[in-house]
Amino acid sequence: MPITEDTPRRWTERRDEKFRRLLAAKSWLKGKCLPAERIVDALEVLITSGDKVVLEGNNQKQASFLSESLAKVSSNRINRLHMLISSISRPEHLDLFEKGIASKLDFSYAGPQSLRIAQLIEDGVIELGAIHTYLELYGRLFVDLTPNVVLVAADKADMEGNLYTGPNTEETPTIIEAAAFSGGIVIVQVNELVDKLPRVDIPASWVDVVVQAEKPYQLEALFTRDPRQITEVQILMAMMAIRGVYEKHQVQSLNHGIGFNTSAIELLLPTYGERLGLKGKICKHWTLNPHPTLIPAIESGWVERVHCFGGEVGMEKYVAARPDIFFTGPDGSLRSNRMICQVAGLYGVDMFIGSTLQMDRDANSSTVTAGRLAGFGGAPNMGSDPRGRRHATPAWLDLITQQSPTVRGRKLVVQMVETFQKGGQPAFVDSLDAIEVGKQGNLPIAPVMIYGDDVTHVITEEGIAYLYKTQNMEERRMALGAIAGMTPLGREHDRSLNDRLRQDGLIALPEDLQIRRSDAKRSLLAAKSIEDLIDWSGGLYDPPEKFRTW
Amino acid sequence: MPITEDTPRRWTERRDEKFRRLLAAKSWLKGKCLPAERIVDALEVLITSGDKVVLEGNNQKQASFLSESLAKVSSNRINRLHMLISSISRPEHLDLFEKGIASKLDFSYAGPQSLRIAQLIEDGVIELGAIHTYLELYGRLFVDLTPNVVLVAADKADMEGNLYTGPNTEETPTIIEAAAFSGGIVIVQVNELVDKLPRVDIPASWVDVVVQAEKPYQLEALFTRDPRQITEVQILMAMMAIRGVYEKHQVQSLNHGIGFNTSAIELLLPTYGERLGLKGKICKHWTLNPHPTLIPAIESGWVERVHCFGGEVGMEKYVAARPDIFFTGPDGSLRSNRMICQVAGLYGVDMFIGSTLQMDRDANSSTVTAGRLAGFGGAPNMGSDPRGRRHATPAWLDLITQQSPTVRGRKLVVQMVETFQKGGQPAFVDSLDAIEVGKQGNLPIAPVMIYGDDVTHVITEEGIAYLYKTQNMEERRMALGAIAGMTPLGREHDRSLNDRLRQDGLIALPEDLQIRRSDAKRSLLAAKSIEDLIDWSGGLYDPPEKFRTW
User: Which NCBIfam families does this one have (chains A, B) (predicted)?
Assistant: First the structure.
């Protein structure tokens, strides 16, 4: 028989608490609409000390009006908040902690704030939960980090509270779902209140409060790379990647990280790639943001389809004019979705290729460097072998090195790294800075971005190490040493072994790939400037002011 | 400069084609509503030969009216369809292939149709793409398997085409998103057309055609386990799991597979678990369907929160009355979401525990057995270590066995298996049937469900093998042999090694866990029947007819 207790348990506490709080804000609300000047008052009754609060800080889109407003609440009334923020990008994200409004933080990425965040953790001002990959943090919103309140940004709302999130939908639906269906409170800042939305991205019944912000949400063009800045070393590495990885393994679906290395690859497809006869054979399906440097490859017919994590400022009109390539809505504009794109990038693609700042001799890498807690973003998710994958593609099967009836393929995880970073620091190090940062921050494990045992290929300006072919740790270190140039790791390496490593296919030098270093010229780039990208787009690409040099 | 081609490329082919097809069906449509008697005519103009078509076959919910209708189209008009079906559950799913309407299949799970599907592949009637885990198939819908048409099921629609998917939301939003934002056509069968929806789950602008089906969609109670059928062997194994895994590693968040083994665990928490003083320490956060056998644990205060892949027939009223535990909408009913729950189950939980039918000596396992291509469902996703995970929990850290500055934790993947299956077949085999099935079906790799190197623990009625602690393949096989009982694998095992294996913690026998086999009695179950579950629920649980034995 059921155990009976003296006081019967209530099962609707979250819902009752939500009603109580909304009632306290009711006098300021017209329907779901709140006047902007009441936002601080409203936050002070809609949020309670100790709450788990998601503040939408995407890679690009920031709920900037709500974050500024939250930083203005009284820390006497509201404190000990546990903040869940994908991307720590704005000063007030950390002001919350200095002002005593928040005390605990779980996050994924911290760009410009990476130095300050490390300091605040060391000083004990921030209690760090963990540094996640995006998909991991989203998952936890439905497990052990269910939010009490979410503060998000949308382009437009109608008077009922339906939302249009448009090209920058990103993670808004996921965050809202975590609160809307768990008795949490959903507060949305919008750029505009309108009578009729271009399309409905979020139904009104998922939304509690809408506030028209004083100015549009912050939006950064994070994925725009000016081709002018691509160096000939990067072009050489891009040529090696195309021949020694893409062509060799027949990579058909892929994600490119942010960075000039992969931009160079995008801009070589219509030139170098075309000459190699690879069009239609590689690089057909992409999971990535609408990179402007992908325009020439799209216009040349290389690309069948792109699914996007988020949007990119300036690419709106171009994307809208290419619905066969990009996912777009009935209104014609981009539909991005970070959760879905991360799932697609984990399970649906042959390859992840990205850059790193530091790599140790076991190929562990991290963008966390001395004193900077930059976080990881999507890299750990996409830069790992999804062991639940069961479908085969040519590239995935091509990485099989053993014979066994229960053998399986493997995702390509490729790291591009110049042997020396700007400032002359060697990229190959004895010990990742991340280990020391982890110790200082009292983290339970070191903040490694991608683990060496997940990395299948490393490309430097010296050559390619085919790590997936190595049989043991010693061979692995040898292959890495062979392409580590004049770094300490490279100088330790016994170069007399290189011929055997080349014969065994554990490394490839440019000459093994029929690449002459002297051919790696900027003239190979399909677009050499932002202006060229605009030309390629037929005038549809409209870069932000800061990329206009003319 | 841009490459110019003779004929300028069109970039709106999918959208134009969609308009063309919808125009051909226009005369039958009133707004978005189609009369049921016109469905076959409409499908014949809305679908074209060679299309990629998603047919919603969830674990539980089936778009049964649409699948029956599709099987009635003329194969002269429509053929060579590439079907994308999560769960092959209904005869007409395969009739499509026998009738020549469809030719290629990508799927995740095939329950009752597993025998026939294997035969059709062997006969060359079905060209098999791959057998996926759910999340993998969803990911591919946005990469290389973008659908032209999706056929889905919802509870209700309003006249504009807004949808209510209610407790069985499952994968409907994900499937619809893949088509609605890629110029695909979204066709929805609903049980009811109403003036006002209880809540909006899918906005009307994502939907093209709504048809009120002749009868409600098929819905199966797949996750209901009658406690009457739980055996004392299962209870013994459940006790071992609780002591030797849950308590030992402090498992706080978890997924339970479908099966009597894990139902037994659920029913022991309020009795055996309570006596061990574990309440509030383990099993707080769950990703699983609303299992009726979880009711006693919920009522006893063990469970903080459950996120669900799908619903469960009969649990609607109970779930609606427990919104602090379950994710529910503003209408009060369950919000399930298979994509989100699979992400949460991959990245957000400490442990996956499930059962299998066959296991080889390396701990590879599969539910694919001779002549049956059952597929995998969510098991490969949840039964694998997400190598992109970066947050630490006590259980995850507890599985670290090495010392290194770049060490990381590990997800618990626990397999429960009785040494002999029904019919006296040993569960431990020399070679998985899946290998032979793979060869017969010409699959590029054998359809292994969970790979041995991902399995951390195996529990039989003999004991627990702590595979994560083994240093090499030999030790791994030894630990498995020690708990393999009288199977050939167990008889080969040298029992004189067992004391050392126990001392090293590589295996635990019941006595090592202070469990007396004689204590494993049905009297330990918190509920011994469906009636008891109804009592625990205060009459809120309303089991389907077939589970009512009174």
Answer: mdcA (TIGR01110)
